[in-house]
Amino acid sequence: MTAPDAGYPALVLLEVLPWWLGLTGLWVLTLSTPSLPEIAVAAVAGLLCAFAARAARRAVGGAWRFRIRWVRWLLTLPWTAVRESALALVKVVRHPRAGRFDTVRLPGEPEAVHDARAAAAAVVIGCTPGTMVVASPDDLVVHRLLDGDSRVLDEVRR
């Protein structure tokens, strides 16, 4: 058994805190009328899930290195989600078996950065109704419901 890294509590905090804030925020966003007990439950559940996410990353030996510039992907989400919602609704009504599989090539980066990009991209892409990630061997395999370009996919490729 190896000794914990120097600064161990700080490293745990740096990993768990963003998960906790994001998961708690997501839970609160789903509440129609937030109350103190519901926010408290969201905070506790978010904390448990944040530690579970850390444990899962450690279990698979992940060493992700996220880049702050990837936050810009979120700027394309609102418009893309609204646009693709309308287009997807029309598409499935007209063609219930619509869709195709594509490969999204990711830039060549060190493994930890590449894996982090693939994970972050899967989350962001999954927030749009027109595309979903179905696999991520080296590049992302996505199912595209809509034809044409996607601003979110364009951002992820950069």
UniProtKB/TrEMBL annotation:
Keywords: Membrane, Transmembrane, Transmembrane helix. Coiled coil: none annotated. The keyword Transmembrane applies. One of its GO terms (molecular function) is monoatomic cation transmembrane transporter activity. The keyword Acyltransferase does not apply. Pfam families: MNHE. InterPro entries: Cation_antiport_E. GO terms for cellular component: membrane. The chain crosses the membrane at residues 12-33, 39-56. This is Na+/H+ antiporter subunit E. It comes from Amycolatopsis iheyensis.
